[in-house]
Amino acid sequence: MHSYEVAIEDWFVPAENLIGATAARAAFYYQMAGFENGRLQTAARAIGVMQAAYEAARDYAENRKVFGANISEYQLTQVKLARMAVLLQAARQFAYESPG
Fold first, then answer.
1. Residue range 6-53, pLDDT digits in tens
2. Computed over its alpha carbons, how large is the radius of gyration of the chain?
């Protein structure tokens, strides 16, 4: 999310057109709320990528054979897939609990 500074000199805004009680403070809070929503959207996209990576890894493990057995039958592969699943669920729950 990009932010830019805009400086306007010698510009008058009538009081009835100002945002909030004090325009400078209100504008800051509106901007921060925009950043917050942008960060939640970024988290949601990252969780989607994590889900796709987990599903691809699980599918690969179920279809890849080594020494006559699927690698999903090996304990180390199961541990790695379980760790991916736990981290994915933790990230998802963290995003659900984030204020927004």
1. 888 888 878 777 766 666 667 777 777 777 778 888 899 999 999 999
2. 24
Domains of the chain listed by start with CATH number: 19-97 (1.20.140.10)
pTM of the model as a whole: 0.67
In one letter, which amino acid is 70? N
Is residue 39 within 8 A of residue 31, CB to CB? The reply is: no
The answer to whether the CB of 32 falls within 8 A of the CB of 100 is no
CA distance 100 to 37: 6
> And the tokens for 94?
């963290």
Please check the confidence at residue 67 and state whether its pLDDT lies above 90. Answer: yes
d(CA 76, CA 69): 14
Place of tokens 């080594």: 66
